[in-house]
Specification:
This protein has helices at about 35-45, 95-100, 105-115, 130-145, 160-180, 190-195, 215-220, 225-230, and strands at about 1-10, 15-25, 25-30, 50-55, 60-65, 70, 80, 150-155, 180-185, 200-205, 205-215. It is α/β, with parallel strands linked by helices and about 240 residues long. It is globular. Bound molecules: adenosine-5'-triphosphate (ATP). Adenosine-5'-triphosphate binds near residues 33, 34, 35 and 37. One of its GO terms (molecular function) is ATP hydrolysis activity. This is ABC transporter.
Length: about 240
């Protein structure tokens, strides 16, 4: 799968300007709070509409401002893991995951996901009584149930304590590896970006400060923002 995106979106005082070309790789986005990371993901997912530009997945156009094409979020096949997981509170774990299936009932796949994410025992429980890790596993299972072509992870570990963070990082790593398509991970934690991604983009006030091989950028950040975020203090 190849994701090509070039778009602009004005938000408050900044304009987010993004140009990406990704092919079966994991991109990490690093940037200060408010620089436009979540807006970027939301534009790709179809939750927000860019003012201008084009987003294409292989030969399928998801958004084209000139041709007035804008596929609905539900039709984009882009999986989105929200910071707070956004589980439906009135549905059990099983129902939350099943909700992501299309018309056809994929019972075997549902059971497989419950097992894979260690959710079989809590399948009939509601999100409010789940641990943070179980909530995140449910959200990941729901995301994969829709068989996405692209996976977007927005600060997937921010709601977890440090022990769970380590455990869930391994799970996310396995998900990304077995997925094998285009994935984007937004994180404030540079170590997570370093461990989980092959490509890294440093954003500064809505723009791409630099983008390239993660190991290369971490070894030699070329911009002041890159040096600050990677070599400097905390974000
Ligand atoms: N739906 C929206 N419509 C218009 N402006 C928005 C919308 N969502 C966020 N913004 C604004 O866009 C800017 C970038 O926000 P965004 O949430 O993308 O930052 P971020 O880099 O993800 O920050 P953080 O790391 O704190 O999550 C902010 O000024 C924010 O107030």
């Amino acid at each position: 799968m190849r994701l090509q995106a070039e778009f602009r979106k004005k938000v408050k005082t900044e304009t987010i300007e993004i140009s990406l070309d990704l092919e079966n790789e994991v991109l990490g986005i690093l940037g200060r709070s408010g620089c436009g990371k979540s807006v970027t993901l939301r534009c790709l997912a179809g939750i927000l509409q860019p003012d201008k530009g084009r987003i294409q997945l292989d030969d399928k156009i998801l958004f084209d401002s000139e041709k007035k094409i804008s596929e609905k979020a539900q039709k984009r096949k882009i999986g989105y893991l929200f910071q707070n997981y956004a589980l439906f509170p009135n549905m059990t774990v099983r129902e939350n995951i099943a909700f992501a299936f299309g018309k056809e009932k994929e019972k075997d796949f549902l059971e497989e996901l419950l097992e894979r994410f260690y959710l079989t025992e809590v399948a009939e429980l509601y999100p409010a009584v789940l641990s943070g890790g179980q909530q995140q596993r449910t959200a990941m299972a729901r995301m994969l149930a829709a068989k996405p072509d692209v996976i977007l992870l927005d600060e997937p570990f921010s709601a977890l304590d440090s022990f769970l963070r380590q455990e869930m990082e391994r799970e996310v790593q396995q998900v990304l590896q077995s997925f094998g398509g285009v994935s984007i991970l937004v994180s404030h934690n540079k170590e997570e970006i370093f461990r989980l991604t092959q490509k890294c983009m440093v954003m500064e006030r809505g723009k791409i400060a630099e983008i390239g091989d993660t190991k290369e950028i971490f070894a030699h950040p070329k911009t002041a923002e890159g040096r600050l975020l990677i070599q400097g203090g905390s974000l």
